[in-house]
Design a protein that fits this description.
globular, mainly alpha, 17 helices, two-stranded antiparallel sheet, 366 residues
Length: 366
């Protein structure tokens, strides 16, 4: 398959990016609640706000350099060497984020749903759904995401309505937790989880122009931040802050408490079904994003070779994540502390350098 992306509509683009980011914001919950507890819900909203500001800066960089996409804008502003380094950083962010989401899901399955199944089988269960979608291209991912997005939103609304009887408002206090500094700082470090939106800014032909990218990116950030904040607010109202930091999979525990009376009780099976579909699409988005960026960096035309390699690497990374090995914990600890710099630094540095350059530098070089 040559490196030629098909065209997709605005709704498909918004659904694909929203699903990819929402899965990372919601389905890696234990690490998100540690240290923040009941403030995680508005910390997620702050993350969405920072991401919108950063995305607007990326759009301004593209407009100032006159580049058709974000990759060309970075190359034009920072030079080929630093531009290549930025691409490598984004590949790492996409890859590790997808592996963390899939690994968390496999860990949940092995602990609560399929404890006798080997980890390699559960990982293949995810990749068998993600790899074919990535193989068929971004257009397929967008169309499937539009279908699964409906299920995802319905499941979030069902979770909120089903746990309503367990809500206790006193669990939200103190509103600022241990101080405003921790939620604000944590919202910045979570920018690693929304790096998918910047990959969308590299698909100019697929997204049918810069205005299309701007509308889709901002809408996706708003939807993903709002849905993730709603789910986290639900868990903050159901569980106390100390319990949120101790529970292995808070969202699964909350789903088990969902009840509408009679036959409509203990509906966690529905959430597991929706969870696996959404994680598969999120993983497919990241696999395609990594392969696409790799091919553009090293001028490769056959994306399937890169997809196969990243698929094998994803299997190994998910194995580390599911087993919670020391190597995985060390890498994730470093990513949680410094990973946001891989998202923020290229855009901010490229924009600042472009202010010192003439407008339309890309068009002049062409």
């Amino acid at each position: 398959m040559n490196l030629r992306e098909g065209r997709i509509g605005q709704q498909e683009a918004i659904c694909a990016v929203t699903l990819a980011m929402s899965c990372k914001l919601i389905f890696v919950p234990q690490t998100l609640f540690v240290g923040t507890g009941n403030t995680a819900w508005y910390s997620t909203l702050l993350t969405a706000i920072w991401a919108v500001l950063l995305f607007v800066m990326a759009l301004a960089l593209m407009r100032r350099t006159g580049s058709p996409g974000l990759l060309e804008a970075l190359d034009c502003s920072l030079g080929k060497v630093l531009g290549t380094a930025c691409r490598a950083a984004w590949i790492g962010v996409l890859f590790m984020g997808a592996g963390a989401v899939a690994g968390e899901f496999v860990g949940m399955l092995s602990q609560y749903v399929m404890p006798r199944s080997p980890l390699w089988f559960l990982i293949l269960l995810i990749l068998c759904g993600a790899f074919p979608a990535a193989w068929m291209g971004f257009e397929t991912i967008g169309r499937l995401s539009k279908i699964f997005m409906v299920m995802f939103v319905a499941a979030a609304a069902l979770l909120f309505a089903g746990t309503l009887q367990h809500f206790e408002s006193y669990r939200l206090y103190p509103i600022l937790g241990g101080g405003i500094g921790r939620p604000v700082g944590d919202s910045l470090t979570r920018l690693t989880l929304v790096g998918d939106v910047f990959f969308m800014a590299t698909l100019t032909k697929t997204m049918q122009g810069k205005r299309f990218i701007a509308r889709s990116g901002i809408a996706a950030l708003g939807f993903s931040g709002g849905i993730a904040a709603l789910v986290m607010l639900c868990m903050a109202l159901v569980f106390s802050a100390p319990m949120l930091e101790k529970i292995t999979v808070p969202i699964f525990k909350a789903a088990a408490m969902t009840s509408f009376g009679g036959e409509f009780s203990r509906m966690e099976g529905i959430f597991v079904f929706v969870w696996i579909m959404c994680v598969a699409m999120s993983t497919a988005f990241s696999l395609y994003g990594c392969s696409n960026l790799y091919c553009k960096t090293f001028d490769m035309r056959d994306i399937r070779a890169a997809l196969t390699a990243f698929g094998v690497l994803m299997f190994l990374w998910c194995s580390f994540a599911a087993e919670n090995s020391p190597v995985y914990r060390t890498i994730i600890a470093a990513v949680e502390r410094y990973g946001y710099l891989l998202v923020v630094a290229p855009v901010v540095l490229g924009f600042l350098v472009s202010l010192l350059q003439k407008r339309g530098k890309y068009e002049q070089q062409a």
